[in-house]
Amino acid sequence: MARRKGKDLISQLPDDILLHILSMVRYKEAVRTAAVSRRWKHLHTKLPAVSFIMSVLGAQGSSLSTQSRQRVDSMARTLRRRCAGPDRDTVKRLSGLPQGRAHGVPVRRRVHRARRRLLAGAVPQLPKEPTQRRRRAVVPASAGCHRLRAPKLRLFDWRCCYAKEVRVDAVGRHLSDVVIELFAGRLPRCYNEAKRFLQMEDCDKLMNHILQGIMPGRWKYVQRNFIERDELRLRCEITEDDM
Amino acid sequence: MATGSGAAAAAADAEEKESGSRMITLTSNEGKAFVVTEASARQSATIRSMVDDGGCVDKGFPLPNVDSKTLARVIQYCDEHGNKEAHTVDERAALAKFDKDFIAELDADKAFLYDVTMAANYLHIQGLFALTTQCIADTIKGKTPEEIRTAFGIEYDLTAQDEEEIKEEDTHA
Tens digits of per-residue pLDDT, B67-102? Predict the structure, then answer.
């Protein structure tokens, strides 16, 4: 290995090694490293174990408030930066990551729990704080968790590269508190190329199936539109029946 | 590590007979040859697959990305993990102690630690790679960005706009 010049040697390590290191610290701490330097600013956004949770809270007669809109915009910017940022080669870089702990099981379990509750007809309005704490606890330590509450947020887009699962979780009266998760699992090293991505059809099916399954009749349509030729990016529009 | 001295070679020969394994030559980018047991070399998935493919075992393996100092240290790790059994509690404890001392020594020389990390990555030595990256991760844990910069000697080069974006993202995390 050629002796590298300069004092800041760690930043000269290749991305996949730095990402492996970041995947070993808690996600919050990995995000904090963004403020270290330019080299580190975008690193954490390439971590494969990232989970976005967008929550739609509505049907309480409230309209989009300014504050919510700001948060929606800010969230959208973050999502865009994270998922469709300047680094188009994210996929390639991530393919070098070694396999880590398995993620995703806790999320699936939680969805099932929510579904059970709905089927039982209980549909309780979950207290906010405990819910959040419980979610914190089940989301794997190295997975990011983005949550947004905005009345009647009906349009969002995301990119589902690396995703093993797209999950829609619903709790609350009026089935209005919808949590849409893009859960990206850790990538195995040298894995079958085709398996790495969630197929569009799968994504559609999952989204429709889960939304309709959990909230029958609530959604007029759940539609996916391609907004780029890039097949990794898609957009969903959701309309409620009683809008 | 058996680098040619009589005693070491004899010991390696005995080892070879005992385990029935071959000796393998690894060559650093400076052309220095290191003779190791196959068990030791098999710690590296890269070399393991080449050996299993029946390739150039006799010719040895040139490692153009690894210098002698780094290779010597990497082989030290592989010897410990490849040549020794770790079945009993005592043996496992000894190995754990070796790892602890090994990484403590590396941690004191960060530049060398990165070199070993790169080599472990290049040679696919999973245990060593996990050990060194964990060490670096432990340094990051619980630190503020300033502290991380200090710990690794990273220069601050963020603009005000960068700061703004980071702050915004932080509010979601």
Answer: 999 999 999 999 999 888 778 888 889 999 999 999
* A contacts of B157 (beta carbons < 8 Å): 37-38
Query: What tens digit of pLDDT does each residue of A153-207 get?
Result: 233 333 332 233 333 332 222 222 333 333 333 322 323 333 334 444 544 554 5
Contact A34 B144 (CB under 8 A): no
Q: Where are the domains of chain B?
A: 6-155
Long-range contacts of A107-111 (CB under 8 A, 24+ apart): A107/A51, A107/A138, A107/A139, A107/A165, A107/A167, A107/A181, A107/A183, A108/A165, A108/A167, A109/A138, A110/A135, A110/A138, A110/A169, A111/A167, A111/A168, A111/A169, A111/A210
Segment 78-137 of chain A within 8 Å of chain B by CB: 78, 81-82, 98
Domain-by-domain residue ranges, chain A? 48-240
| Yes or no, beta carbons of A12 and B114 under 8 Å apart | yes
Q: B-chain residues within 8 Å CB-CB of A76?
A: none
Fold of B6-155: Potassium Channel Kv1.1; Chain A (3.30.710)
ipTM of this complex prediction, to 2 decimal places: 0.79
For B5, the enclosing helix (H) or strand (E) is none
